[in-house]
Protein: tRNA N6-adenosine threonylcarbamoyltransferase
Amino acid sequence: MKVLGIESSCDETGVALYDTGRGLLGHAVHTQVAMHEAYGGVVPELASRDHIRRLIPLLERVLADAGCTRRDIDAIAYTAGPGLAGALLVGASFAEALAMALDVPALPVHHLEGHLLSPLLADDAPPFPFIALLVSGGHTQLMRVTRVGAYELLGESLDDAAGEAFDKTAKLLGLGYPGGPALAKLAERGTAGRFKLPRPMLNSGDLSFSFSGLKTAVLTAARAKELTESEKADLAAEFQEAVTEVLAAKSVTACRQHRLSSLVVAGGVGANRRLRQRLDEAMAKIGGRVFYPALELCTDNGAMIAFCGAQRLLQGEVPVAARGAFAVRPR
Ligand code: KG4
Ligand code: ZN
Structure:
């Protein structure tokens, strides 16, 4: 069965074709970063319009790479939410219309479920059950994953998501968009510990997170004096240390509490090198292992949506009932 995946929740247009027998046949992503850069963030109206422009060329490219035609598509999975309403509507309309034209089922997929399952696309996939750390621009969650479709939320951010904190802090430091990678790059030139930032909720005794105070602490430090370029790098390094320390500590606690040795990391912040280093070290100490999606599948893409849709169909989900459903939640 070949499932087409469509992702258009924010500023990346992703299209992919996944075969349940042969794996990923093709995938392509167009990022709108250059278009939004001048505005310092994503402009929703521009994002929607660009998704319209990109979807058909991306579909044609993916089909050509896969050596397939439209007629080979057996089902279409698309990101139904969460995300920017207009951007989501473009992907949903495209997917539903194409499904109707080809007379194949269309399946709305929860964006986070796509991220969550993306490490399963790797050759070296994690075994069930596992703990998943979902760290994106909109969410920071720890989940226990028993199988596809069975997710238990163990803890999440009470305020800003980790990616959001990276983005907002980057803005405070006058870095460009997208903030997360820019801040991570600056942090590499700085030394953590020269500024002292808190480790929010590190010892809270639960698996909740809070990152908004950290951003305020950076603001206070930045307002105290005019920062030199090297001080900015030190502050960025300390911020990255604070966020990654809390994320790593709580991920290990979740694994310990549930006696699981596999940790899956998904979402854009999962691309952060320092986070990966910390998680690898911390999990090795308890005899565990961390599984990451391929770097190109950490941020938004159609492959994770195609894969998620395919798994749901394999589990016998009947997509017809979902027609017209816009927002879905993982069960
Ligand atoms: O998963 P994603 O592509 O989109 C959402 O679903 O949100 O994640 C985007 C988030 C942004 O906040 C971005 O700044 C952050 O991931 N991000 C990073 C890095 N790469 C992307 N944050 C820290 N370090 C990075 N290397
Ligand atoms: Zn995402």
